[in-house]
Amino acid sequence: TQVLFVECGFGADQHGQSATKACVRACRDAIEFNSIPSIAKIVPGGYENMKLVIKIGTPKPKEVDEEEVKKVFPYGKIASLVVQEGGLNCSSGVVIEEMGDETDEFLIAVAAVTVGY
After folding, report:
1. Rounded to two decimals, what is the model's pTM?
2. String of DSSP letters for 19-60
3. Smallest Cα–Cα separation from 116: which of 57, 32, 36?
4. What average pLDDT is seen over the chain?
């Protein structure tokens, strides 16, 4: 694989304790502030042949719905998606049941998205 660049992102679920939501937000953060207009010229086959290697750290990796995370990426082929123990679990300082809180956990995930071909 020819690596072009690596994008990093951060995502959190302050209320509701959803590891999936935190991971989705981390992946969106990694990619949504970038424009790569030259991919069609750099990658043989353009956007559809772009390969993505996604690695995410979250306090609750077994609770992540990987199919929801994959939906974040509008094009390219996901060569691998690894969700592992990492990120941070801290206190939000408050439990708001109306927002889905069962505890005061504040889940934080980090993502690295490697783009290449």
Report:
1. 0.93
2. HHHHHHHHHHHHHTT---TTHHHHSTTGGGG-EEEEEEEES-
3. 36
4. 95
